[in-house]
Amino acid sequence: MTERKASIAPDLALAPLVSALIDTFIHGLHERLPAAGFGDIRPAHCTGVFRVIDPQGTRPTELARRAGVTPQAMAEFVSYLEERGYLQRVPDPADGRGRIVKLTPRGRKAADAAGQAFAEIEAGWTNTLGAKRMHQLKTMLVELVGSDG
């Protein structure tokens, strides 16, 4: 990690800097999940499923749309997590022909662990930048996300 930090300069284009930041974030998540007892969960499961699922459950097609992946990719995520006891597919109470994906109690614990990992990573970044600069960073990111870029 130190080698990578040394090779990153602030005069780089924004894309590689954002990519390096995401890589750092994912690496931190990947280190923390096994320590919390969830070594079979990958960061893609956190960002692709746990981040976008509703507490009452969500249709797989909606999960795919929210995560920005194909329905086939989401089906693979759901099957993987269902086989390991994190998710279950149940009839949709609003439409008995459809199915929704819900977190199991184990899935809720994993989602909570991922949320805790995200919070720890953010706290580390706040420690590095200071509270004022972290707030400024978040404010700027909100502006950029809401812009037409």
Detail the topology: elements first, then pairings.
Elements: H1 2-7, H2 14-35, H3 43-50, H4 60-67, H5 71-83, E1 87-92, E2 95-103, H6 105-129, H7 131-145
Question: Helicity range of the residues?
Answer: 55-70%
Tell me about the largest β-sheet: 2 strands, antiparallel
The CATH homology group name: Winged helix-like DNA-binding domain superfamily/Winged helix DNA-binding domain
Measured on Cα atoms, how large is the radius of gyration?
18 Å
Strand content: 5-15%
Q: How many separate domains?
A: 1
Distance between the termini: 30 Å
CATH level 1 name: Mainly Alpha
**Quick check: average pLDDT?**
89
Q: Please give the number of β-strands.
A: 2
CATH topology assignment: Arc Repressor Mutant, subunit A
What order do the SSEs take from the amino end to the carboxyl end, as H and E? HHHHHEEHH
Q: What is the name of the CATH architecture?
A: Orthogonal Bundle
Uncertain regions: pLDDT < 50 for 5+ in a row? none
Strand line-up of the largest beta sheet: 1-2
Count every helix, treating DSSP H or I runs of 4 or more residues as helices.
7
Task: Name the shape in a single word.
Answer: globular
Class from helix and strand fractions:
mainly alpha
Give descriptors for this structure.
mainly alpha; two-stranded antiparallel sheet; globular; 10% strand; 149 residues
Description:
With 149 residues, the protein is mainly alpha-helical. It has one domain (10-145): Winged helix-like DNA-binding domain superfamily/Winged helix DNA-binding domain (Arc Repressor Mutant, subunit A, Orthogonal Bundle), CATH 1.10.10.10. Helix content is 65%, strand content 10%. The chain is built from seven helices and two strands, in the order αααααββαα. Strands 1-2 form a two-stranded antiparallel sheet. It is globular and about 55 Å long. The model has no long low-confidence stretch (mean pLDDT 89).
